[in-house]
Give the backbone structure.
Amino acid sequence: MADELGAYDIDDLRDDRDRRFDDRDRFDNSRRDQAFERALEQEMRQFEQDRAVEEILKAIINDPNMIMDDGGVIGRIDRPTKTTATRISGRDQIRRSGQFSRANILPPISKPRKKNKKHCKNLSQCFRQANAKLRLKNGSLRKGKTQSDVAKMAHRLLKKMK
C-alpha cells in the first residue's frame, strides 16, 4: 500500500473501499435472501393450512349427516343406523308403497275431446251426402246398408275433402 516514500496509491484505497462495500452488499443480500425464505416458508404453511381446511369442508359438505343452520353453525343429524332401525311389518310396507292408493285404483278423469275439423261443418255436409246416397226417398236405408255404412261413407268423403 504505501511505497518507500510513505505515499499511498489511490488504486489501493479504492480496492479497499470496494471490498468494504462488497461485504455490506453481501450482508444485505444474505438478509434479503433470509427474509425471502421466511416469507416463502410462511406462504407454504398458509397454503397447507388452507388445503387442510378445504379437505375438512369437503368432508362436511359430502356428509349426508351434517347440516348447517341459518346462523352458519354446522351440526350433525342423529339418524338411526340400519342395525338400530325398527323393523317395518309387511302390511306397513305395502301401505307405504302406495300400490293400493285411490289414485291407482280409480281410472284417471278424461278431458273432453278438442273440437276439430271432423266435428265442424265438413262432417255434417259429408253425412248429408252419404245419407242421400244410401237412403231411399222415403228415408229408409237401402237393402243391405246400415247406419254404420253411412258413417263409414261420411268419413271417407271427409278424407277426400281434405
In short: The chain is about 60% helix and 5% strand. The longest strand covers residues 66-68. Residues 10-62 form the longest helix (53 residues). The two ends are 123 Å apart (CA to CA).
